[in-house]
Sequence to fold (270 residues):
Amino acid sequence: MSQLLAGKKGVIFGALDENSIAWKVAEKAIAHGAQIILTNAPVALRLGTIKDMASKLNVPLIPADATKNEDLENLFTQASQHFGGKIDFVLHSIGMSINVRKSRHYTDLVHEDFIKAMDISALSYHRVMQTLYNKDLMNHQGSILCLSYIAAQRTFPGYSDMADNKSMLESITRSFGYYFGKKNGTRVNSISQSPTKTTAGSGIKGFDAFYNFAQAMSPLGNATAEECADYCITLFSDLTRKVTMQNLFHDGGFSFTGVSEEVMESFLDK
Ligand SMILES: NC(=O)c1ccc[n+]([C@@H]2O[C@H](COP(=O)([O-])OP(=O)(O)OC[C@H]3O[C@@H](n4cnc5c(N)ncnc54)[C@H](O)[C@@H]3O)[C@@H](O)[C@H]2O)c1
Fold:
């Protein structure tokens, strides 16, 4: 395999179990020659299988709640000590909404839970970047990525407050991308991924219908977690040094398809 990340050092948030998109990114980053550190919320270390992954890959696992600035400061200080210098890439693969988990209707949300979901799923991206920016821990022309969904632009009933969180996530991508680009050429992007069968994905009411509809609409079919990981690797690599402040659709063409023949056929009079 080509070594697109040879010599690069990265921090990967959000590997919970082997279905997680971040899990696939971690495996591929190492296969491409990177050194990595895994991190997740302390509760995820107890519930998921990330500890097994860290020992299998022989990489450090540092707990950090992405909504706590002190956890992030500790994480990145330890990371730079471990790497013996600055960081080349960061994956923010984090999302959680109690309103979605409890299948609450969008017109009947609990706002305390809405705020919590926004902190976890969107503001944490700002917290991560603010910590890296103020501690000057990103290498020149580094790359920072998060994962989004097309409900940021279009309405998908059932995606609930996560749609609003993803809109904010993409806005933070543009806003921080400007300042990080000016500072030292660091790229900041979001990938808007197809519905993917993971813990976070499957928690959405009607997920299977979302998944099957997107599959029928996309000329290339839904992008898998593994394919998403491949795309992440290109964006961490030196091949994409001038791509920044973008929301990049990785969805088999779903976002620009008006309607597919398969979907049309399902509306034919029988
Ligand atoms: N699965 C999909 O259909 C899909 C589609 C588009 C985008 N995404 C996005 O991809 C990203 C990764 O999700 P996934 O599908 O791999 O599911 P996942 O459930 O495997 O990953 C979500 C991760 O967020 C972590 N997390 C939650 N609260 C946290 C906190 N306070 N601090 C640190 N980490 C925390 C969880 O522990 C978990 O590891 C999310 O942003 C999700 O919204 C998923």
